[in-house]
Amino acid sequence: MYSEWRSLQLVIQSDRGHMSVLHSYPNNVGKDVAHAVVRPLGQGLNSSSVSSNESILKTDKEVKWTMEVLCYGLTLPLDGETVKLCVDVYTDWIMALVSRRDSIPQPIIKDPNLYVQTILKHLQNLFVPRIEYAHNQITLCLRVLAAVQKLAHDSANMSRETWEVLLLFLLQINDTLLAAPTIAGGLAENLADKLIGVLFEVWFLACTRCFPTPPYWKTAREMLANWRHHPAVVEQWSKVICALTSRLLQFTYGPSFPPFKVPDEDASLIPAEMDNDCVAQTWFRVLHMLSNPVDLSNPAIISTTPKFQEQLLNVSGMAQELIHHPCLKQLPQIFFRAMRGISCLVDAFLGIARINIIRERLPPYGISRPRSDSAPPTPVNRLSMPQASSTMNTTPPHSRRMRSVTVTKATVKASSGSTAHPPKVTHQTSTTSPLSSPNQTSSEPRPLPAPTRPKVNSVLNLFGQWLFDAGLVHCRLHSGMNRDGSMTASFIQILLSYKSCMTTPAGLDVRRKPSQISTENMVANPLFDANEFPDNYEAGRAEACGTLCRIFCSKKTGEEILPVYLSRFYMVLIQGLQINDFICRPVVASIILNSPALFCSDLKGIDVLVPYFISALETILPDRELSKFKAYVNPTELRRASIHILLSMMPLPHHFGTVKAEVLLEGKFSSEESSAHDKPVTFLSLKLRLVNVLIGALQTETDHNNTQMILGAMLNIVQDSALLEAIGSQTELNVGDNTHVSLKSHSRNSSGISMTSTGSSEATTPDSERPAQALLRDYDTATGLLIRSIHLVTQRLNSQWRQDMSISLAALELLSGLAKVKVSVDSSDRKRAVSSVCSYIVYQCSRPAPFHSRDLHSMIVAAFQCLCVWLTEHPDMLNEKDCLIEVLEIVELGISGSKSKTSDQEVRYKGDKELNPASMRVKDAAEATLTCIMQLLGAFPSPSGPASPCSLLNEETLIKYSRLTSTSKNHFRYFVLDNSIILAMLEQPLGNDQNPCPSVTVLLRGMSGRHAWTMQLHHQPRGSRANQKAFVPEPHPPPKGNMGIKFNVKHRPFPEEVDKIPFVKADLSIPDLHEIVTDQMEVQHEKLKKLMANQILYENALEKNSEERLSKTIFPDPDTECSPPPPAQEFQTARLLLSHFGFLSLEALKEPGNSRLPPHLIALDSTLAGFFDDISYLDLLPCRPFETVFIFYMKPGQKTSQEILRNVESTSNVQSNFLEFLLSLGWPVNVGKHPGWTGHISTSWLINTTGGSEEDTLSPDDTGGGIFNGEKNALYYADALTEIAFVVPSFVESSTDSLESGLGTQEMETQMDLLPSLLKQAPLTLELFPNHSDNLGNSQRPSPTQKSKRLPLGRTVPPLGPETKVVVVWVERFDDIENFPLTDLLPETSTGVETTTNSSTSLRTTASDKDVPVVFIHPLRTGLFRIKVQGATGKFSMVIPLVDGMVVSRRALGFLVRQTIINICRRKRLESDSYNPPHVRRKQKIADIVHKYRNKLLEPEFYTSLFQEVGPKPLNP
Predict the structure, then answer these.
(1) Cβ(562)–Cβ(465) under 8 Å?
(2) Dist CA 900 CA 911 (whole Å)
(3) CB burial class (10 A; 0-12, 13-18, 19+) of residue 1314?
(4) Element (H, E) at 505
(5) What does the pLDDT read at residue 988?
(6) CB under 8 Å to 430, separation ≥6 — which residues?
(7) R_g of the chain computed on alpha carbons
(8) CB-based contact 172:224 (threshold 8 Å)
(9) How far apart are CA 1332 and CA 1351, in angstroms?
(10) Is the pTM for the entire model greater than 0.70?
């Protein structure tokens, strides 16, 4: 920078201005003269009278002679007052440039600049160290420095020459005291901070008023390089460069750039009057004033200054002993402080620095930690970290940072390869993490760098050389390379040493056999003994590595970085991630903490580092305690950052497949014989190691946030594996002879890449002891991964996790996701998942009453929901008796609060139990599970499709499609069973059955929805009915023509023998008729005879006629033959059905004595006003939860909602992957014909619409997805338990909105007027009803993307809240996330649910930008996708499987986004106090209908009504 300018050091050294004429005389002469001359001058200054205070020096000659004496007096010993009086006089005289005083001689007042220049040169003598009376010298020096400060601040007429002399004076006194090796307790150690502080303060004043020329800058830079062994020098430099940077950023990047805040005390060092150009010039020069800060890691450079060499000559020591000078033991701390200062500058330029905390003095050894953005810090577990002393928290809270590790000279940490006695490291205790920032809690999201930040190349142009060199400080150099005198290896040397290590036999086993490694292969270091390797410089190196990681992670989308920077950065990471016996844990921790987004930033060639990062993660994640890292970092933060990196690497093996991972150094510097060890590995072969790390992390993780991220990653890898196998493109690993090669080929020994790293003593995963063949079989297929995941999660769900709500919810969500993975799994594994969930519910329900809370009940509800997912996805599980019994017992437990069968002997029947559920929410969840088991299993999707699990028939459509033109809704009979099921019975046949039989059509409206049944009464088997058309009686046998012989025989009443029997007296006791007949009786007797004769004749004639007629009649006689009656043609089928089901008993009709519930069977009066409106209202209540997702596309640089909405109008505006992503979320549906949720309540759940467009649903080929804006088409997904509408809002012309708004103004006023009357009526609805939808064409339907919507009056929306909608944003440039106008786009996300007429305001929008979860999807150049999730914070905030920072594949993106949306909405419903499940809402509405429309008839009247016709007239089909 100043190569063409001369330095002023020779001028300073040759300047004799500090010498007096008295130096030519003997010492006693000068001492006596000085005592005699100075005393009256000092007495005059200290006198209180005005006359005495006047100077006794009148002429120029007198003043100059006196100054010669004062100059000599400043060199005298401090045992008397002479030196003090000299200081008093000079500090008073130099104020001549500030103000006029009587004590100042007139010649000085007339020409102050000339005299002040001389005085400053004389004052140099005061700063020459004295051995005795050092305290007095410190006091006097501080007085002089204070006077110089005041002179520079307050003087308004200093000439350039005076300024230059003043700067040279400060440089000279600093060099005098600070250039020599530091002596403990000496003058330099006590004055260093003040000396360098005054130098910088005055220098900045000079820059403002008289900018120094280049020679002065060059001289300052050269001399400052000699003082760097003082901690105060680097600390003050860091302080002032940060203050300058704060001013520089204000005018360089404008007010929108995040301010770089520094303490007011530091900011005041920069004069307010310094203009912007001067700030920029000063900043750059001060930045380089420290020279190369990496030199601080090299004692050889620091100890080669002239003053050090002078010290060497004085003690006549050897060169090797010089670097062991005690003052050089502070170099590690100084080096760290310099790197910390540069790190703060980098953060300031990136816009991520919160506050400059340079003010704190570090202990002798510092450990690096990232800025507040580097990792979400978590409070340190106080059980694992020792408490700090009371003196540790003296730093103000806003600038408090972590105290660092202290290493004394005798406790330097030896390398693990050392053969000497290992020194012990002592750590200074701390209450916060050494690598964390206390300014941020663990729940805060990681802030993004400023959008207007400079490019990576620009930052590296400023700081790259220092950071790259510092990142490679003291890297282990192996034999086979050229030695270099410097301690910092160059880039090429690192390359050579890396290859030499790979090719040496010792290097091949360096990781597996650390105890066998000797120091013979190491290059002998001329500066340090092998037994005391200076790895305490690792703090500064770690800070540099972390800063580099933050710089490269701040890369913008599409930004190009110079290859030379990328290659050096990768080399730093390769060296920093060494996982062998020389592992540098602070560096590894710093790299991991600052690299969570490294694999998400689209860095070219970053994937070559995957094996190295895997090796580092294999050391960190499976280690439960991380005891060896606790000294440097909070273990929780380190694990979280490691998990973030793991999440970003999980899809790489499947994505790149058999692509070979070319290691950075592979084949570049190797000889032919070493090529056998350099076989490249495929990414697919790394899958096993990633899965092992993931499982090991899950087994050892204790933090709930970290655990949830791991659970999300597990579903990601399982689903991705399943989809990859489904498309048949997975390359199978050869499990034969090549398995050994595939496992060992990427065991990079020198870089620490090994398959056995998880088997170290620190790892706790049991997989470390399992053979590799078994691991391959377990994890190489989706089935193996799924089974292993189920086993791990279920085991911990019922042990460690069951009392942690957040982890339990995430684990249940993972199990729900695993249930949907389409791979074949044995029934035993599925039963394991179901049984574990059941056991989880039993445990939670059995917890003591004090533990029962809303959170606990939310966990139980979530478990029931998970159980429903498994049962609906695998309905055949309930075919097994033991599984069915277990599930039903859990349902019983949820509903009643206890099981009927508590042991093998004791059985408590359900009728004898009192209902005592854990809570009503638990009871509702158990009822929903029972409904799922009884009504959904094996019956979904229904014949009407997945859009509606219910029947699409209601009264109107049933009559319409059955061709019963003379039938109306009034012909239905309505009954209610058990206050929960409404029966609508139509007693007429549907007209499509030829055989008359008892038929009834029933519409059942229950808690689970609406179902239609047609029932017929048959007394014959189905097979007999198939071939028989009408009832025909059995045929009569044919008649016979031969009737036989007829004999005319007169039959006697008694046999003939009766006449032969003689009479006895008794026989004679009865007289004969003629004996008793009188004349009168004779007449009557004759008359009777005649009548009898006539009767005989008549009967004979009749018999004759009958015989004649009978002879003429055919056989058989149809008039006399017996035949069966004809079948009945009309039936009262409602009565028959109810009777057959046993509902017409007297007990069923009686009011329960001790209950408010109605009877088991009641009739409804459908003639009451509002009855059918309430029935339609009930039909509108959905029978399963519904969600809405609004998808936006954001191009680079867009900030307004109109720009974003217009993107989806054409395919040319969007990426092809976006359209593929849309179709992976759901299938297209026509809004006009769709019976399910469409994204807006005005067009949803329509069951009899015919006004839709006749053309098929358009494909998105001709649009950018805007066709799915909800007007005519939308994307839809549904399963048995939920339904989702995906809407892509598009731009709507403002004219349409204004027209609609104008037409609707009067309508809104009318609605407000009618509101009181509407509230008094039965609950009303919008145009959601079938009869209204019939009259609407598809073009007349309101668009859900329009901002103004007018809803018809007279009908109200059912209470469907709380609102559950999610926003998904496809961003082409990741930095645009902060500019996404969510607030402006919220009006486009209207679903109609937020609009209610049940409040005092007509239209109310309750959603805010903080309440809406947003999932950002950023496509990477590799074909993968980076995820960012933001939304409402709280205990329900973190939802899996997608978590912030995850990278997912193209295959699994749609599934994971959809599953995340389902889980987000379930969490929101769990958190809501006002949410009721769908079946509860329907149950409540049914109870309301019963209360309002119950037909209260007595038993006789009820029975009578069953025999009466309904409707205005009988039906004639």
Answers:
(1) no
(2) 10
(3) middle
(4) helix 505-508
(5) 74
(6) 380, 385, 388, 392, 402, 403
(7) 50
(8) no
(9) 12
(10) yes
Structure-block tokens of residue 1116: 């058989």
How far are the Cα atoms of 497, 746, 1162, 1408 from residue 616, in angstroms, in the given order? Answer: 21, 15, 72, 42
Is the predicted pLDDT of residue 799 greater than 60, yes or no?
yes
CA distances from 1044 to 284, 1041, 1047 (A): 146, 9, 10
Categorise residue 400: left if φ over 0, alpha if ψ from -120 to 50, beta otherwise.
Answer: beta
Token output for 569: 């950065």
**HSE, side-chain direction, 13 A CA sphere, residue 776:** 16
Strand ranges (E), 1231-1326: 1273-1278, 1283-1287
Q: Which of 984, 988, 983, 1010 is nearest to 999 (CA)?
A: 988
And the tokens for 503? 């090719």
Neighbouring-strand partners of residue 1187: 1284
What residues have CB less than 8 Å from 464, skipping those under 6 apart?
Answer: 565, 568
Query: Which residue in this structure is represented by tokens 């004996």?
Result: 1075
Amino acid at 456: V
Return d(Cα 844, Cα 890) in angstroms, integer: 12
Rounded (10°) CA dihedral 378, 381, 386, 391: 40
pLDDT at 811: 93
> pLDDT tens digits, residue range 930-943?
999 988 888 888 88
Distance CA(785)–CA(88), nearest Å, equals: 84
Q: Which two tokens stand for residue 644?
A: 């973030």
Whether the CB-CB separation of 809 and 825 falls below 8 Å is answered with no
Per-residue pLDDT band for 1447 (boundaries 50, 70, 90) equals very high
| Beta strand pairing call for 1365-1371 and 1186-1194 | parallel
The two tokens of residue 1096 are 């005989």
Q: Residues 1129, 1134, 1140, 1145: is their CA dihedral positive or negative?
A: negative
Distance (Å, whole) CA 577 – CA 556: 25
Confidence of residue 1332 (pLDDT cuts 50, 70, 90): very low
Q: 3-class DSSP state for residue 1385?
A: helix
Q: Is the pLDDT of residue 825 over 80?
A: yes
- With contact defined as beta carbons under 8 Å apart, do 375 and 596 qualify? yes
CA angle 524, 529, 535 (to 5 degrees): 95
Bridge partners, 1286 (sequence order): 1189, 1275
Burial class (CB in 10 A: 0-12, 13-18, 19+), 965: exposed
Residue 1150 CB-half CA count within 13 A? 6
CA 1237 from chain centre, in angstroms, equals 27
> What's the rounded mean pLDDT across residues 243-272?
89
What are the helix and strand counts (H, E) for the chain?
53, 16
- Residue 124 belongs to what H/E stretch? none
Percent of the chain surpassing pLDDT 70: 72
Distance CA(1515)–CA(450), nearest Å, equals 78
Taking each helix axis from N to C end, the angle separating 1216-1225 and 1453-1471, rounded to the nearest 10 degrees, works out to 50
List Cβ<8 Å contacts ≥24 apart for 187-190.
187/129, 187/130, 187/134, 187/137, 187/138, 187/141, 188/129, 188/230, 189/230, 190/134, 190/138
